[in-house]
Design goal:
Length: 462
């Protein structure tokens, strides 16, 4: 085990005399699946099975998936009473610091093994040819005295791999081969099989989840900061207003007056949307349009990985169209504040539900409410995808049906807030309150917008 690119596959291939079979070249991990290779031990008396695993990358989404694959494999083999004799954990000595991904990997590996198994762990350093001897030596000492210290104290050993078959077998041979009945399961195997815990309740699962929620809290803080600013507080008291639809007399082309009178055009919205929508719905945002959009996308991605990990399928149904809307408007040159508002509130609501669902099972009523706004979000996504397909200016953004769809979206999200409210822990209530206020603002603004369209339409008739 170990991070991607530390030489796990290379080790297996060299050990079994197939130097070019499975290892990746470059930084991309080639081992997506778990690969077990049976090989006769050079002593001619027994077979050795080397198990190559996928590495954990920099993205949290794949981390959860990788852990799930690994856990499934460990669970199945344990159920078949196959247990590991030992574990090799790989580390590149050429890495000049242990932080971020390698550290997260190591922490997860420790939780996956459990302290009782540390004595069967070999900490293998690779890429010695990439560093000067004394630099490598210094790093090795640092690892032994710091990051690996606790493991070494509990019996783990450290070894250097020199890219040769002899070196590989020397390392394999340091694992004492005990009789199968004396082998111990890993902590994750005990938790999942003996204690019947779902993956996200295991120690390793909780470690992954904790890294995600740490980032999640950071993103939520981004929204919170924007909310608590004075300007926003002042605005909360004012009735929200949407940018006025374009006045027919000011529209660019007189021949398009009729379309502008019944629908507001994309150009019309663009010309006005920079000004007020995002700052008038009772919800954020002093942040720039792009920053806010970035926050929404990060929140939704993290929520997606949690939803996948904790297996909250109904939430994924809401996250997927929200992400699709956010990505589509991100790809558009002109800002679309009105759609950002809808998706921003959706992201926050999804964030609140995601946190809630990690602690408490979500009820059937809540599931129905989530499916309700997920459907509306899908329809809203339809509008956005249609806009994205057309040339700018040819798609009337907020036609009557669009307004109805977006309003319905906000209303079904408010309904979900109502269902969720009594079940929430006190620390999540302020966040839900903000979503509720934000959605009320969106609904009022959409309503005002529609009225303004009607007025303009009447004026044009006169
Ligand atoms: N210089 C050097 N390169 C290595 C070593 N081990 C692996 N590599 C190279 O590093 C890259 C990633 O190795 P791979 O075995 O796919 O890593 P994995 O993701 O941990 O399975 C490949 O291009 C290997 O050829 C090593 O000990 N020294
Ligand atoms: Mg590999």
């Amino acid at each position: 085990m170990g991070p991607t690119g530390t030489g796990k596959s290379t080790f297996v291939d060299i050990a079994v005399g197939r130097p070019d079979s499975g290892a990746g070249h470059g930084l991309v991990s080639c081992t997506q699946e778990i690969r077990a290779v049976r090989y006769p031990h050079p002593d001619g008396e027994r077979n050795i099975v080397l198990v190559d695993t996928p590495g954990f990358d920099d993205t949290f989404v794949s981390d959860t998936q990788t852990l799930r694959n690994l856990a499934e494999w460990l669970k199945t083999t344990y159920k078949q009473k196959v247990m590991l004799s030992g574990l090799l954990y790989f580390h590149r000595i050429s890495d000049n610091r242990v932080a971020g991904t390698p550290l997260r990997n190591l922490n997860m590996f420790k939780e996956l093994c459990g302290r009782d198994n540390f004595k069967n762990v070999v900490l293998v350093t690779t890429m010695w040819s990439e560093v000067l001897e004394d630099v490598g030596l210094q790093r090795e000492e640092e690892l032994q005295n710091d990051f690996w210290k606790a493991m070494i104290q509990l019996g783990s050993t450290t070894h250097r791999f020199h890219l040769t078959e002899e070196s590989a077998w020397e390392i394999i041979d340091t694992i004492s081969v005990s009789l199968p009945e004396e082998r111990r399961p890993l902590l994750i195997q005990q938790e999942m099989v003996d204690e019947n815990k779902p993956l996200h309740k295991t120690s390793a699962g909780k470690t992954v989840l904790r890294s995600i929620t740490d980032i999640f809290s950071g993103v939520k803080g981004f929204f919170r900061r924007s909310k608590t600013s004075k300007a926003t507080k002042d605005r909360r008291d004012k009735a929200p207003t949407l940018p006025r639809p374009p006045h027919p007399s000011r529209s660019r082309s007189s021949s398009s007056v009729s379309s502008h009178t019944t629908h507001s055009s994309i150009d019309g919205l663009r010309s006005t949307s920079n000004t007020s929508f995002s700052n008038s719905t009772g919800f954020p945002s002093e942040h720039s349009y792009r920053d806010a959009l970035g926050g929404v996308i990060t929140t939704l991605k993290l929520a997606h990985s949690v939803a996948e990990f904790v297996r909250i399928h109904c939430l994924k149904e809401a996250i997927v169209p929200s992400l699709s809307i956010a990505h589509a408007i991100e790809g558009m040159e002109e800002p679309h504040h009105e759609l950002l508002r809808v998706v921003e509130n959706a992201a926050l609501l999804i964030g609140v539900i995601t946190e809630h669902a990690q602690k408490v099972r979500i009820t059937t009523e809540m599931k129905t409410a989530i499916s309700g706004f997920a459907k509306d979000l899908k329809r809203a996504d339809g509008i956005v995808q249609d806009m994205a397909r057309r040339h700018s200016g040819t798609r009337a953004v907020l036609q009557d049906t669009d307004l109805r769809t977006l309003t319905s979206c906000a209303e079904s999200m408010r309904h979900a807030c109502d269902v969720l409210r009594p079940k929430l822990s006190p620390d999540n209530r302020p966040a839900l309150f903000r979503v509720d206020v934000g959605l009320a603002g969106v609904i009022t603004a959409l309503h005002d917008y529609k009225s303004a369209c009607c007025e303009i339409s009447k004026e044009a008739m006169r």
